[in-house]
Amino acid sequence: MTLRRLSLQALVLAVLATGLTNAAVAGDFRSADDVLAQFKSEPTVLDLQNMVLEYSKTDNHYVEAWLAASKNSALLPTFEVDYGYDNGYGQDFDYADGTVSSELLSASNVDLKNSVTAKAKWDFTKLVMSSERIRVISETQDIVKLRDKVLDEATRVYFDRRRLQVDMLMNQGDVKTQIKNELRLEELTAQLDAYTGGLFSRKLKNK
Amino acid sequence: MAGPRDAANGIAPAGVCTPLLLLVLFVAPRTWAGEPGARGGLGDPPSTPEVLPLPDGTLPGAEALPVLPLSQSRVWEEVAQPGGDADLVSLSVSPDSPNRWLAADANGGVYLTDDGGGRWMQVLRGVEAEVRGDEAILLEAEMLSADTFQGVTAADAEAEAEAVRAANETTSAVLESHAASAQVPPTVWFDSAGGGVALIGRAGEVWRSTDGGETWMRVDGEAGAAAFARVGTAVVAGGANGVRASLDAGLSWLDVDSALVGRRVNELTAFGGAFYAATDNGLYRSPDALQWARVHAAPDGPLVSTIPDPDMAGGYWVAAQRGLFRTDDGGLAFSQTVNQPLRGLRKMVHLDGAGHLLAISSDGVWESMDSGIRWTPASRLLSDPDVRALDFSAGEPVIATATGVWRMVQPEHLPDTQAVMRPTMPMGVTVDTALSRAGMQGDLLSLARRTRALPFVPNLQLEFQDAFTGSRDADFQVLTSAGGIKNAWGATAKLCWGCSSSTTYYDYNSDSYDVQQMVDDGALTVIDGQVYDQGSVVAAAANVAQKLASFRVSTAQQISEAWMTRQRLVAETPSLAEAPLRDRVMHELAVQELDARLDCWTDGRFTIWKPESP
């Protein structure tokens, strides 16, 4: 409870400080470019989109690599290697009086065989069309859909955040409104962090 | 219907003329096939997809993309009206001179201008003023019927009754034929081969001119025409009863006996090595303009145009009165691009740029930059929306409406809203860029071509063998021993066609199947939640292709919406000059957000796009 109260007090102080600063500069803006120039230190939407692509692993080169791999995989053959080892031997016996005790080894033979067979098979029909390639094409569609959706959402949140920043800059309102806006700003920043694995906030601090 | 006419006029029956036509068509050079002198225009059948010049007259190509669509960069300008209160229905521009135009009114009256519509002169009176009328048609029917009574005597009552019945049928056939032809509106057409040859189809007749439309001669009275097209050295006409052909540039005409008999042909086009006839009930295709077969997957009902897509092999649109349909696989399957028909659609053509279409209708001129998903009116300064015909003069559209002829021109001063527009990637290019991304290309699953190739692709098997053999024999009686070693190797290469599939045995006595095991063994494949065996590759591809097509359409729709919204916002920018600063900032952010969204779909190419310098 104490921590929460302290946190809110800090937030109020931050809001008041920001409001004083903004009030000092609000009248200096002459054009839209002047206003938007206030946020030049933040990552651009293009930076954000690159972060999202990197974090979600849905960049175009992944998709291109999948498609290329699915097609080129048919160029690799199926390998089969057989090794065979035969060891055959035989012995001939003579029996002088027809009893076992008169057994006499008369001849022996040994046959050894080592063989290696290597087979490579190419199924060229898979270069034309294969179930694996169709599956990859289907999966890449899903990836493109995911990428479009994630990028679109992140872009929307980015500009919601920017609009809020502009509102906060140009129309501070009372303390309650400022606190509400500050919380909303943190919420939107957190959403962008969710899309970028926290990279957005780190970039904010670095810039 | 064709039989009696042929017999009466001494024209060889279709069955006889067909081999002759085939021979001529295959032996003769096909001058329209993209060779010098060929012209892109309405009804002209180029073998390669038709790509019209850009509105500014430059040649189409990636180096010269239009910054703005026609609807935003051009306005309509009315030229002098031919024939006072002429009710125009057809228009054609000469391939020899872009300022020589022919126009026909609803009565078949024909007008000619030599100066791009500055001054018109009537070169052919309307049908009502001609001698041929109902009486002439009845006379023709009577003459044909008289033939059936030859050799019939009054004593043979049965033969007489049969002759009367045959005469009635002949008369009905003649009357029906002329009634059907009369319903086909007049059409004028400059021969794409040039040389001043022009043709008119009207009220069951064909007229011909060899001096660029100044003087005319009636060359055929058997059937009119709704569309003409040049096919090699022959000219093909589509009318109320299928197609007819002429081997002498329209001087004499022969019936072509085909599946099109009885069908009204609204338009003839040729591309991708085939000919297409848009009829009153479905689409027909022919490899040689003689043997026609229905494209069963195409939509039923009256069709208006068939439009090739130069950006995709096997892709074309079919414009029907109930909407626009598209195929990506050469006609195996069609899907409706948007369930929103253009009211009174009459013709559609493809312009430069991917998915750039222009349509004329009874509700004005419409333009689409996204393959027909979104339509924008291109009717600025056009006071008469009832557009009947379209052609191109020096790359600029020319139209005939009920009350006059209009040409599209670039205004001297663009409206303010356009002046402030920054260079923007055109919608067609934006959609094309988005749909060309990895995983979105439509040709990934081009089934028709790939499945045809499959039986001809072999398996290759290479085998290498090496064997070492050693033996030793000992004879203890004679105390001898012998032995030897042998090393042998060999290689085999084997090509095998049709042996790619393995046989999978299923134990039907078993109570259950271990599907996962079968998937692991490669006997089954799971694609997008569906289970396929190895023999169902084509079916799987078809399902995935359908999903891809749907995704492409949906993406194109979103992009076109965003693009149009952005254009609207940018156009509003000047009106916000006096608005409060906050409104201007929010407006700028809205544009930036749309730019960023369009960047998402184009891998960032939208905002860095710049028009190439001409």
What does the model show?
The complex is a heterodimer of chains A (207) and B (614). Chain A is α+β, with helices and mostly antiparallel strands and 207 residues long. In chain A, 62% of the residues lie in helices and 19% in strands. Chain A has two domains: 11-72 and 126-206; 78-121, no CATH class. Chain A has a two-stranded antiparallel ribbon. Residues 1-8 and 19-24 of chain A have low confidence and may be disordered. Helices cover 25% and strands 29% of the residues of chain B. Chain B has twelve helices and 32 strands. In chain B, 40% of the residues are buried. With 614 residues, chain B is α+β, with helices and mostly antiparallel strands. The radius of gyration of chain B is 33 Å and the shape is flat. The interface between A and B is large, with 67 and 65 residues. Strand 2 of chain A pairs antiparallel with strand 29 (459-475) of chain B, so a sheet runs across the interface.
In what range is the share of β-strand residues of chain B? 25-35%
Number of strands of chain A: 2
How many H/I helical runs of chain B? 12
> Biggest sheet of chain B, in brief?
4 strands, antiparallel
Broad shape of chain B = flat
As a whole number of angstroms, the C-alpha radius of gyration of chain A is 38 Å
Question: End-to-end distance of chain B, in Å?
Answer: 56 Å
**pLDDT < 50 runs, ≥5 residues of chain A:** 1-8, 19-24
CATH topology (level 3) name of the largest domain in chain B:
Methylamine Dehydrogenase, Chain H
> How many β-strands of chain B, per DSSP?
32
Biggest interface in this structure?
A: A-B, 67 and 65 residues
Overall outline of chain A: rod-shaped
Q: Report the biggest beta sheet of chain A as strand number plus sense, adding barrel if it closes.
A: 2 strands, antiparallel
The CATH class of the largest domain in chain B? Mainly Beta
SSE pattern of chain A, N- to C-terminal: HHHHEEHHHH
Which class of secondary structure composition applies to the elements of chain A?
alpha+beta
How many independent structural domains of chain A?
2
Query: Over the alpha carbons, how many angstroms does the gyration radius of chain B reach?
Result: 33 Å
| Architecture per CATH nomenclature, i.e. the level-2 architecture of the largest domain in chain B | 7 Propeller
- Integer average pLDDT of chain A: 83
CATH H-level superfamily title of the largest domain in chain B: YVTN repeat-like/Quinoprotein amine dehydrogenase
